[in-house]
Backbone:
């Protein structure tokens, strides 16, 4: 998929009406072909709003990198870090719940 079409698809996904079964997209490609640059461009177009005077932040795009080894606990901590929250030190199930619970305070 060319970068322009991929950017259009990602923009569509961001504007998709909120529902229980949200569509998603996995981007896979060789190193150095522009995946991260594309996401950074999208993040510039849809910046986070920390809403310092309100209760919740608006974070339209959560960007994090998977840990170098297959580690779910580390992955959940990467997600927490990417939304500006401290890591969780409990079991994987507790970390998963912590990501879910804390993400409920953010608007998509």
Residues:
């Amino acid at each position: 998929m060319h970068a322009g079409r991929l950017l259009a698809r990602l923009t569509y996904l961001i504007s998709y009406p909120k529902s229980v079964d949200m569509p998603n997209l996995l981007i896979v490609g060789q190193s150095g072909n522009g995946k991260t640059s594309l996401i950074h461009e999208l993040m510039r177009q849809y910046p986070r709003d920390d809403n310092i005077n309100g209760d919740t932040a608006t974070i339209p795009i959560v960007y994090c990198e998977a840990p170098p080894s297959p580690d779910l606990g580390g992955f959940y901590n990467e997600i927490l870090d990417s939304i500006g929250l401290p890591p969780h030190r409990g079991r994987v199930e507790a970390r998963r719940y912590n990501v879910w619970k804390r993400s409920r305070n953010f608007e998509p």
Notes: Residues 55 and 89 are 25 Å apart (CA to CA). The first helix runs from residue 3 to 15. The helical segments are 3-15, 35-45, 72-82, 92-103. The chain has a mean pLDDT of 82.
